[in-house]
Specification:
- The complex is a heterodimer of chains A (60) and B (642).
- Chain A has 1 helix and 1 strand, in the order E-H.
- Chain A is mainly alpha-helical.
- The relative contact order of chain A is 0.06.
- With 642 residues, chain B is an alpha+beta fold.
- Chain B has 12 helices and 26 strands.
- Chain B starts with a helix and ends with a helix.
- In chain B, the strands form 8 sheets. Chain B has a 6-stranded antiparallel β-barrel with strand order 15-21-17-16-22-24. Chain B has a 5-stranded antiparallel sheet with strand order 1-2-26-14-25, with helices on both faces. In chain B, strands 5-4-6 form a 3-stranded antiparallel sheet.
- Classes of the chains: A mainly alpha (60), B alpha+beta (642).
- At the A-B interface, strand 1 and helix 1 of A face helix 2, helix 3, strand 14, helix 9 and helix 10 of B.
- Strand 1 of chain A pairs antiparallel with strand 25 of chain B, so a sheet runs across the interface.
């Protein structure tokens, strides 16, 4: 057992924090993308309504 | 001297630690769940507002993304749960801050021996006919024992750290620290750190302690059944006795006669934790069962490298309170002060200009208290003649020849030979540390005679200063060299200098994690508002679009912030100077870890070291990706030791 356990010079990392940060970033990016699509949808709705209103106005 | 005595304190203590604070992460976890759900429901609602053709196309694009988002939220949640479960004990062996261990004194006090200009010690040799002469050649032990040679002490004799060592007279106390010579920095070796790690398991008094909350009369009566955190029943309760684990009463929820359904919500805490104690399972420190450890030692053969590695290490582990920089002086500040002590203002009085006044660049030292420093500035306007009023008897003869004696004040410093001045001094470490400037101590000019430290290490060699002219005190008056001299009037407290960037204050996990929680909370509120605004009105649709734009801007800011944090945590601690020992889960309990620590090999004995030991005990649940029941394995994974 003693042979297995040896002190080693180690390059320590904090993967816990890194991974959590990376995942949160990814979540935020994806969410951003989705609400972007949603925004585009609402903009379409708004535009088509305006168009319709304009058409109705033209048709008198 | 002062510094070393301050380092003499109690002992290293076990403390609890979680990779990330569970309380903060709980906010994040609940917000993340809510977010995932809200995103799904708002999107389905939003799709109702879209034109049918566009909607079909959009949904096709959005579905895989939505699924990925869902999976990601699950992963974040799982990760948080894992981290929440991972609790450890940690032990910090620290010789340098509030010093919970004592660095060994690497020097002896002895009479100061004269040194020549090259720094070699001066010896007196008897020529056999009773004549003594000086030489820098080291005599033999036989010559010293037969008193045919002796060290040439300063006159008057002065006891100094690193002075003549009667038990080891041939070796220069100022030889290289690599050969066992005196070091200016307080040394604590890697072996000593390991010894402290091992010793900490033997401390019989270091057990977890819980004290009764509230009055004895309010607690359940002796002999009643009480419960632990998991709801397991315990007998043997006595409100007057301290127990080693957290205990609960069933609480008042059964007042109406019904059965307690949710014991966690209904229970009432009976005691609260007073001390953490060494690693234990349900309060038992002598357990035989699964436990594992990770020991980390920062060690170096020179203090500067130790300081550099420690600096990075403390940033990396700023979620451990001792390394956090939010409460006054932290560990790193303490080390910085050892490397570069803050300048002090010393008020000098009776500076005797007969032997010249002090100037910038002079090295001065206190005669009794061994303070040393370099004058970096003479405070403008501070140089004034010393007020020295004496009283003398003056005989006054009247016309009848009668003499009347009267006492009169007179200026003893009429020629302004003595002056007062305020000087700013950069303190210099002596072998016994930094010594204060004590009022009344005589201050003399110093000069370099030899060096101490290890010449093979950069920034480790320090000049050895002695009082100027101390080797001429036995010569005839005309040949003597007199140093500049003054008396310390007082040491003025200096305003602490501003901290040198990069300041780590803003990048602590403690700060980041609640920030995340808040981020999700704000995001969720935004989404909830969006949901409430679903309407046919064009004006509302415009509002909604504007709000989405705000959310997008907020997310962009958040992503940038995360990138900044990531940049820092991408850095791995250099392997040089950091030694790690990973003891995977084993069944020998604390004793097992102790013996593993004792027997592990492969670490050099370095002069400057501090250590951090994490211990985890086996639990019931599988963690670390389902591979282990001991959180220590998760820690090993995240630290990159696996």
């Amino acid at each position: 057992m003693a042979e297995e356990n040896k002190w080693k010079e180690a390059e320590l990392r904090r993967d816990d924090i890194k991974k959590l940060l990376e995942n949160t970033k990814q979540l935020a990016e994806m969410y951003s993308e989705i609400i972007g699509i949603k925004k585009a949808g609402w903009e379409n709705v708004l535009r088509s309504r305006e168009k319709r209103a304009e058409k109705e106005k033209q048709n008198g | 001297m002062a510094e070393f005595s301050a380092l003499l304190t109690a002992k290293a203590e076990w403390k609890p630690h979680q990779i990330a604070k569970a309380g903060d992460l709980a906010t994040l976890a609940s917000a993340a769940t809510a977010l995932a759900e809200t995103v799904k429901s708002t999107l389905s609602l939003a799709s109702a507002g879209m034109e049918v053709v566009k909607l079909l196309a959009t949904l096709q694009n959005i579905n895989p993304l939505l699924m990925a988002l869902d999976a990601l939220a699950d992963e974040v949640l799982k990760q948080i749960q894992d981290l929440k479960e991972a609790g450890y004990w940690y032990l910090y062996v620290d010789p340098y801050y509030e010093g919970n261990v004592t660095p060994t004194q690497k020097y002896n006090y002895g009479f100061e021996q004269l040194r020549n200009k090259a720094g070699k010690r001066i010896w007196e040799i008897n020529d056999g006919s009773g004549n003594w002469s000086d030489t820098a050649d080291i005599p033999t032990l036989a010559q010293l024992n037969e008193e045919k040679a002796k060290p040439h002490y300063t006159s008057p004799r002065k006891l100094i750290p690193g002075g003549y060592d009667r038990d080891n007279p041939l070796q220069d106390p100022l030889r290289s620290s690599a050969d066992g010579g005196a070091s200016k920095f307080p040394t604590f070796t890697t072996k000593e750190v390991i010894k402290e790690f091992v010793k900490a398991f033997d401390d019989e008094g270091d057990v977890p302690r819980y004290k009764l909350l509230g009055a004895v009369s309010d607690a359940p009566k002796a002999g009643e059944v009480v419960y632990d955190d998991d709801g397991n029943a315990f007998t043997g309760w006595d409100p007057k006795v301290d127990f080693g684990l957290e205990l609960f009463d069933m609480g008042q929820a059964s007042e109406d006669g019904s059965i307690v359904k949710n014991y966690v919500a209904a229970r009432k805490a009976l005691n609260s934790k007073q001390s953490v104690g060494k690693p234990n399972i349900l309060g038992n420190t002598e357990f035989v069962g699964g436990s594992g450890a990770i020991a980390i030692i920062i060690g170096s053969h020179d203090f500067q490298s130790f300081y550099d590695v420690f600096n990075q290490f403390s940033k990396m582990f700023s979620d451990i309170p001792e390394f956090a920089s939010d409460t006054g002086k932290n560990l790193l500040d303490a080390l910085t002060e050892i490397v570069t002590p803050n300048p002090v203002t010393v008020k000098l009085t009776q500076v005797d200009t007969k032997y010249q006044s002090f100037v910038v660049g002079d090295i001065i030292g206190g005669k009794i208290y061994n303070s040393i420093g370099e004058i970096t500035e003479i405070v403008e306007g501070s140089v004034v003649p010393t007020s020295m009023i004496g009283r003398k008897a003056v005989g006054d003869t009247d016309d009848e020849g009668m003499i009347t004696t009267v006492m009169q004040d007179f200026n003893m410093n009429e020629t302004e030979r003595w002056i007062d001045m305020e000087v700013i001094v950069n303190p210099i470490r002596n072998i016994d540390g930094l010594n204060p400037w004590i009022t009344g101590d005589m201050v003399l000019e110093m000069e370099k005679r030899g060096e101490s430290g290890n010449p093979e290490i950069q920034d480790d060699v320090f000049p050895n200063y002695v009082f100027k002219g101390q080797d001429t005190t036995e010569l005839p008056k005309a040949s003597r060299i007199y140093p500049k001299v003054a008396i310390v009037a007082m040491e003025k407290l200096m305003v602490l200098p501003d901290s040198t960037p990069p300041d780590f204050g803003g990048i602590k996990i403690k700060d980041i994690v609640p920030g995340w929680g808040e981020f999700f909370q704000i995001l969720e509120n935004f989404v909830l508002q969006l949901k409430g605004m679903i309407s046919d009105s064009s004006a509302f649709i415009q509002d909604m679009i504007d709000m989405i734009k705000q959310v997008e801007a907020f997310l962009e800011y958040m992503i940038k912030l995360i990138d900044e944090f990531l940049k820092f945590f991408q850095i791995t601690l250099p392997s040089q100077g950091v030694y790690a020992l990973y003891i995977p889960n084993q069944n020998g309990g604390n004793e097992g870890i102790q013996s593993e620590l004792k027997n592990a090999t492969g670490i050099p004995d370095l002069g400057y070291a501090a250590g951090l030991l994490f211990v985890g005990t086996e639990g019931d649940k599988l963690i670390a990706g389902g591979g282990s029941k001991n959180p220590i394995d998760l820690l090993a994974l995240v630290l990159g030791l696996l």
